[in-house]
Specification:
The protein has helices at residues 16-31, 48-57, 83-88, 99-105, 109-121, 134-138, 142-153, 159-162, 183-200, 218-225, 242-249; strands at residues 4-9, 37-42, 63-66, 93-96, 125-130, 166-169, 210-212, 232-235. It is α/β, with parallel strands linked by helices and 252 residues long. It has one domain (4-249): Aldolase class I (TIM Barrel). It is globular and about 45 Å long.
């Protein structure tokens, strides 16, 4: 059975103090929660030490993730954060290839391949994001775009490495817009992603978690998570409200 995951991506939100409070609230709600889902939170870099300490003190089931990492191991790269720095802060996952990183910071599949290799070499788990823009969907190129993102990065891995990767599908047109892919649209793309993976890694495709990452919220999570190939969610705005995040986790 594939792993179920709900991962909260806080993006560039909350102060350090606000993040600590949110982490404590999520830990409290998760303590008594009966769910098959692995619970992940991904605060900004500045919060990782304090949030990680809270998770340890609370002996929480909640797992720490980073929102990005550098494409190099170390060196004169002002402003960058290496995967080994993240590992030292007890991060277990790293989000890579988020649509905002691709669009605003020019991250290419070549750069993302370097990052994913570093994350895997450090023994951490990448959450690798793929997805199409509105114009790509409207021109019926959405399958082509997503397949290219998978082939140019994940196809370069070995099967045993893929076993440590989580894929997140982001319909870019549904992020922060209030729009959401229908459950059927999500299932269609998730099933397609699994088929593309199976073409290269037939023994691993059925075990690779594929998360939905487009405006998932308490009102639609249950329907989305009921789809055969939707293994959870990469949650943006709703992860900043502890009760909403908990409601999504309970949707399995």
């Amino acid at each position: 059975m594939r792993k179920k995951i709900v991962a909260g991506n806080w993006k560039m939100n909350t102060t350090v103090a606000e993040g600590a409070l949110l982490a404590k609230q999520i830990c409290f709600l998760a303590r008594e929660m009966e769910t098959p889902a692995e619970i992940i939170i991904s605060p900004p870099f500045t919060h990782l030490e304090s949030v990680g300490r809270i998770l340890k003190e609370e002996k929480s089931r909640v797992i720490l993730a980073a929102q990005n990492c550098a494409s190099t191991e170390s060196g004169a790269y002002t402003g960058e954060v290496s995967v080994n720095m993240l590992k030292e802060l007890s991060c277990k996952y790293v989000i890579l290839g988020h649509s905002e990183r691709r669009e605003y910071y020019g991250e290419t599949n070549e750069i993302l391949l370097k990052k994913i290799n570093l994350v895997l070499a450090a023994g951490l788990h990448p959450i690798f994001c793929v997805g199409e823009k509105l114009e790509e969907r409207e021109s019926n190129r959405h399958f082509e775009v997503v397949a290219s993102q998978i082939k140019e990065v994940l196809y370069k891995l070995r099967g045993v490495e893929l076993a440590n990767v989580v894929v997140a599908y982001e319909p870019v047109w549904a992020i922060g817009t209030g729009k959401t892919a229908t459950s059927d649209q999500a299932e269609e793309m998730h099933a397609y992603i699994r088929r593309v993976i199976a073409d290269k890694f037939p023994s691993y495709a059925d075990q690779t978690p594929v998360l939905y990452g487009g405006s998932c919220k308490p009102s639609n999570a249950k329907e989305l998570f009921s789809m055969e190939n939707v293994d959870g969610g990469l949650i943006g705005g709703a992860s900043l409200i502890a009760q909403d995040f908990a409601a999504i986790i309970k949707s399995f």
